[in-house]
Amino acid sequence: MPINVWILVAAQALAMCTAPFIVFIGSIHGRLLAPSPEWATLPVGLVVVGTVLTIKPATWMMERLGRKPVMLLGALAGTMSGLFGTLAAWSASFPFLCVAAVVGGTGLAVVHQYRFAAMESVAPEMAGSAAARVLLGGLVAAWLGPEIALVGGGGQAEYPFMGGWLALSVVQVLAMVVLVFGYRASGERVREALGEGGRPMTDILRQPVIWAAISAAAIGYALMSFIMTATPLSMTEVADHPLEDAKWVIQIHIMAMYLPSLVSGWLIRVVGIPRMMGLGLLAYLGCVALAFSGISFHHYLFALILLGVGWNFLFVGGTTLLPQGYRDEERFRVQGLNDLMVFGSQATAALSAGAVLAAFDWNGLLLIAIPFLVLHGVLMAVWLISRPQNRGRHPA
């Protein structure tokens, strides 16, 4: 792998900390500051709202300026998120907490583009492995994010979680340092002729391969966020588990999201993208069945492990499949649309998780996931049936 890929792994390990940090304490801190319990998960959802609102501007700027300047702006946004969170904790302000979440989401929108930068740094046949390597940075973030959330005493401090938000800013500054001194933009392919953008988007979207790729990432991410966002509240409020147990479940879940990246690139080459995504669907179904069967610590733990593995297989599979549906000059538009749909779906799921949990309880929330898994299965089947007519760049 080129050095750029490993630099992106290191930068992702630091910059991605915003996600597990807010997933872990966002709803808990929100419960302390929100005017009513129904608003507790709003900060977690607003992270994804910030991501969705930033995807198109971020890809637009990357197309014209290159990826590195926008990556640095993303790390700066992560730093500002930590500072707004610090201010929210100090002033006990729920609106400032919401601002911190939105700004953190803008930084994450840029971090999610790291995988495409890595794919463009290697030969086409290594694209899946490059994307999977970058996701390995999430392993560090999975452990580091929740740990720094408890710096300074966590929720038991005089100003709950203030030390954690400040520590998040420091970690984001370190990500900027890694990018400034490590990432090299020489391999980037900024579009030279702005008037030549390839086919109309309507023609691109007529391809079943596009919908199979987008649905893998979008449905996988949305259902993962839907179940994961509700888990800390379900564990602490419904099942009466201690906060420390919820922290362990979230940490191990996020590690399970990224640890398969050690083998997912190889798995794609060995078994192919369709079987890879099929395994992801089976992992999701196993998660729902296990979580539905009980509320002990181990039910939550192993269900969330399956949830993480299923997310990895669908997300890496969808990301690797996506280039089969676009030409080189179309990549920024299609990548931007892909991430807009992926994180738009995730935002909807995260924002609704608290209300759904309150209205339908934990088991009802789990059952809602099943129709979406069926939908992705149908879109995969349509793509597989039409595959002889597809002419993608990389064989599946």
TrEMBL record:
PROSITE patterns assigned to the protein according to its UniProt record, in alphabetical order: MFS (PS50850)
| UniProt keyword Glycoprotein, yes or no | no
The chain positions of domain Major facilitator superfamily (MFS) profile read 208-396
Is the keyword Acyltransferase assigned to this protein? Answer: no
Q: Which residues cross the membrane?
A: 7-28, 40-58, 70-88, 94-114, 126-145, 165-183, 209-228, 248-269, 276-295, 301-322, 342-360, 366-385
What SUPFAM superfamilies would the database entry show? MFS general substrate transporter
Q: Which UniProt keywords apply?
A: Membrane, Transmembrane, Transmembrane helix
Q: Which InterPro entries match?
A: MFS, MFS_dom, MFS_trans_sf
Q: What is this protein called?
A: Predicted arabinose efflux permease, MFS family
> What phylogenetic lineage does the species belong to?
Bacteria, Pseudomonadati, Pseudomonadota, Gammaproteobacteria, Pseudomonadales
